[in-house]
Every structure is written in structure tokens, then in C-alpha cells.
Amino acid sequence: MTYLIPPNETQIEYIKNEEFYQPLYKLDEDVTHLMEWLTKQPHLPNITDRKWLAHFITGCKYNLQRSKQVIESYFVARAEFPEFFGSFTREQLKEATKQGSVCLFPKLTPEGNRIFCTTTRPSSDDDNYDVMLFCQVSIAILDLQLKLEPMYGNIILYDLKHIRLAQFMAFTPTLTKNLLRCCIDSFPLRVKTVHYINPPKFMSRLITFFKLFVSNKIRDRIFVHDSLEDLYQYIPKDVLPDIYGGTGGNLEKYEEDMLDLLMANKEWLEARPKADLSRRPEHTKTDELDMNGTFKKLQID
Asked: Which residues form the CRAL-TRIO domain (predicted)?
């Protein structure tokens, strides 16, 4: 069971009208192709979950070349950065919510995008802020989304009302770079927009820091809102919880449902496979993959 509401007919029609959309029979062919390609990669696991692969291809705009690049990065990142894929208990998550939380909103936007929301809460206990647990939960939620639904698009919402400088400083350059490698580069994640609400006094420093690690495309999609009325221009009220002036439900209920979903899938999350780096072909990079599962030598002028 999941609390995430699937797209309705209107949202599905909107998605179908996107220029990259492919009919189901073509998607099924691409899934078969990707499964065959995976069997030729000595360092990657053989995946037989056709639904998961279909979700992956959809998030990559039905582009097989892109799908191969991202799926390579998906499994390699888990081997290179195991600290981001640790195990956690319900008690740990409940304790962490005293300082903030991460969750998906149940309703999609009219365009079929899913809201990924991070909130902060008032606390003076900076010594117990577990930045690595935050990273692990964020990635686990993306994993669950990929398992449960096609990733048509994500809108990232940060509520910084109670963020403290110590929390911000916990995200060192190395940690931030590796976290974004595991999220943006290693998931078929289509970031539509990034929204910051309730910005702190040091917001300019935070934005400048974040922009160091993302592409120009994402930089152009970052918005800082001084009021909720401004946010409503991008996210309708019926998608937002009541704490943000919306009619979409209660944020604490979202968080509890997200926690239940994480715990219900705990064994699945802990068993997610990773690449065997000892078997990875030498001198291979994800941007060198060709459509037949081989690697092409780059021509550099």
C-alpha cells in the first residue's frame, strides 16, 4: 500500500502530450533491450523487474542511451558511496523528525509532478543533528518513488523556517557533492523546479553554495519565495498541506505515511544491489556507452 495518489486522466493526458512520450508497446520493447544490455555488463546486477526498469526509462524521457548512463551511475554510486545507503530504524527516524523531515506529497501537480519536501523544525540541539541520516532517508525516498511510480517530474520544496547555521554548515562541500552525485546523477530524476520558502538571513550564502554543485539548467529553475502567495504561482493550493495555506491535507500525516512506507519497504531498501567495481571494465565512463552495451573510445579534438 502507498499513500501516493497516481495521476488522474487529466494528468495522464498532459503527460502523453509531452514530446518525448512513447506508447506502452515501445516502452516494453525498450525494457527488454535494457534487460539484455544489463546481462552484458560484468559489473552490473541483472535486473528482472520490468516495472522498475520501465519507471527508469520513463524518467529518462524514454531515451535508452540516457537510461544506460544513469543506471550505470545508479549502481556504481552505491558501491562508491556506501555511507549514503545505510540502514535506519523507526526510532531513529522519529527522533530525527524533531529537527526536520523529508517526505513526498500525496497529490501530483496538474502537470503530473511529485513534490519532494524538506522541512526544518525549531531545535537547539545542534550536536545531535544527523546529517548522514538525512542523506540516507532522502535517497531511500527517491528509491521508493522509483519503485512505486514512473518519475515524470519532481518539484523540490525546502521549508527553511527553522534552519540553523550549524545545520547548513554540516553540509560540507565533499558531502554535498557526493550526495548530489547519488541523487541527481544516479536517479532518473527530472527536477522541474526548486523552491525555497521562509528563507533565513544567510539565504544568499546557501543559494551560492548550492549552485556550485548543480547544472546551469537547475540553477535557472531555483526560486526563493518571501511569501506563500508567490509559491502558489508554481504549486497549486490543493497540492500543498494546510501548514502552507493549502487544502491538500496535513503535513504531519504526510510524514507519518512516509515513515510507514519506509518501514514497510525496509528489507527491500537494504537489499538493493550495487555494482561490483572489481569487475568494472577499465577506462569506462558512463558517457561512453553506446546503444549495444559496448564502450566507444572518445574522440577528442
From this structure: 90-252
Q: Where are the domains of the chain?
A: 9-80, 88-267
CB 170 within 8 A of CB 132: no
State the chain's mean pLDDT as an integer: 89
The owner of cell 526544518 is 120
Does residue 263 carry a pLDDT above 60? yes
Residue 286 pLDDT exceeds 60: no
pLDDT at site 1: 62
Residue 7 grid cell: 495521476
Full-model pTM: 0.90
What is the per-residue pLDDT for 283? Answer: 55
Return the CA Rg of the chain. Answer: 19
Higher pLDDT residue, 220 or 296? 220
Looking up cell 540553523, which residue turns up? 164
Residues 117-137: what's their mean pLDDT?
84
Alpha helices in the chain (DSSP H): 9-16, 24-39, 50-59, 64-80, 90-96, 131-148, 165-170, 173-183, 203-211, 216-219, 228-231, 251-264, 266-270
Closest CA to 51 of 151, 179, 173, 191: 151
**Cα separation, 150 vs 67, whole angstroms:** 13
Cβ partners under 8 Å of residue 77, min gap 6? 84, 181, 182, 185, 186
Cβ–Cβ under 8 Å, residues 37 and 293: yes
Cβ contact 103:141 at 8 Å: yes
Rounded CA gap, 219 and 221, in Å?
5
Angle between helix 173-183 and 64-80 (nearest 10): 140
Residue 226 neighbours by CB under 8 Å, 6+ apart: 199
Under DSSP, the state recorded for 102 is E
Q: Return the amino acid letter for 20.
A: F
Q: Please report which helix (H) or strand (E) contains residue 59, including its range.
A: helix 50-59
